[in-house]
Every structure is written in structure tokens, then in C-alpha cells.
Design goal:
about 0% strand, single chain, elongated, about 70 residues, mainly alpha
């Protein structure tokens, strides 16, 4: 069985229900979740990410700060 979701909330719900395993960022782990063999995780394929902004958001300091934080983090 495989589960696919476009949202982190959907993946976390499946994990909470005990329906599988997932590759998550450490910041997404919940207290009840276990990180197995964190010293030697498997190599995962590269993924592509995109960031789309509404034209009216250009120059908005809050949106600019979020974009900058995302670019630094990811």
C-alpha cells in the first residue's frame, strides 16, 4: 500500500495512524514519532521546489521575509 498527499498534514495524519514511514525534516517530527537510524539515513533523490508569488505581493516586506527564509532553509 502507498499513501500520497500534497500536504504535510495529510502525511502526518497517516503516520499518526501507523500507516507507514516517511522522510521528514527534523522540524516536522512530533514528540510521539521516532527517528530511526538518524546517523545513516538513506540517500533520497533530489526534488524540485517552486515558489510562486502573486504579482501584488511584490514589495510586501512580510512576504519578502517569508520568501527569504524559505530560500535560506530549503
Amino acid at each position: 500500500m502507498a499513501f500520497d498527499s500534497n500536504s504535510l498534514a495529510g502525511v502526518l495524519a497517516a503516520l499518526r495512524a501507523g500507516l507507514g514511514v516517511a522522510a521528514l525534516l527534523p522540524t516536522n517530527l512530533e514528540p510521539a514519532m521516532a527517528c530511526h537510524d538518524a546517523a545513516a539515513p538513506p540517500v533520497l533523490p533530489d526534488v524540485g521546489l517552486g515558489l510562486a508569488r502573486h504579482p501584488r505581493s511584490e514589495g510586501d516586506p512580510l512576504i519578502d521575509a517569508v520568501e527569504t527564509a524559505l530560500r535560506r532553509t530549503i
